[in-house]
Amino acid sequence: MQLIQRGIQANPDYWRLYEDLGFVYYFDLKDYQKASDAFLEGSKKPNALLWMKVMAAKVAAEGESFATSMFLWKDIYDSAPDPSVKKNALQHLQLLKVKEDCKQIDALADEYVKRYGKRRHA
Predict the structure, then answer these.
(1) Which terminus of the chain is more exposed, N or C, with fewer CB under 10 A?
(2) Cα dist. 74→10, 32, 53, 61, 96 in Å?
(3) Above 60 in pLDDT, residue 67?
(4) 98 within 8 A of 67, measured Cβ to Cβ
């Protein structure tokens, strides 16, 4: 980590160092928020590839930062010229919406159990 951080300080516009940082946070440390932040920061650097922003969105969702992930996927959808990238972003947006809806349904079901003591089955 220290080596990558030193590299970033010496070469702040080199996006591949942020890629390395994101993968260390993601795979080794399982810190999804910091991984997403690293990928997103790297995506803003000159000549960064689009997949850096895609990784930021994907990792944010894995860390259950659904609002961040939705924002990034929406930005990818709005800015991508490639129809296949747009289609992929739209699918991720739809999946995130389903996850959010399921969380709300679970919360409602839990509230029902608190009030009435059990879940009703039809």
Answers:
(1) C
(2) 32, 19, 11, 13, 11
(3) yes
(4) no
Crossing angle (nearest 10°) for helices 51-62 and 66-79:
160
Closest by CA position to 33, among listed 74, 6, 66: 66
Alpha carbon separation from 17 to 5, 46, 83, 101 (Å, rounded): 8, 12, 29, 36
**Residue 60 token pair:** 């944010």
Residue 40 near residue 72, CB atoms below 8 Å: yes
Reported confidence tier of residue 47, pLDDT bands at 50, 70, 90: very high
> pLDDT (tens digit, 9 = 90+) per residue, 79-95?
999 999 999 999 999 99
Q: Which long-range contacts (CB under 8 A, 24 or more apart) does 65-70 make?
A: 65/32, 65/33, 65/36, 66/96, 66/99, 66/100, 68/36, 69/96, 70/96, 70/97
What are the structure tokens assigned to 82, written together? 């490639």
What span, in angstroms and rounded, lies between the C-alpha atoms of 90 and 85?
A: 9
